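Q: Convert this sequence to structure tokens.
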Amino acid sequence: MPSKARNTVLAMTVLVAGIGLSACSGKRWCELDATDQKVADRYCEAGTPGYEWEPDSDKKKKSKKTKKRS
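A:
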């Protein structure tokens, strides 16, 4: 396999692995945006228009505290 093709295959493999790992990093699900109905993850994974990932919203957000400088 030529070097350019090998580099392209390697880059695509890394990209797919990165997407897969980021998808498993937290609790989320795919929803139909118009109705907020849960659907199969394959719609969001394929980037189908009208579908989006929804994060677990039960978690409290951490507030960042900043120190005042005198």
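The two ends are 63 Å apart (CA to CA).
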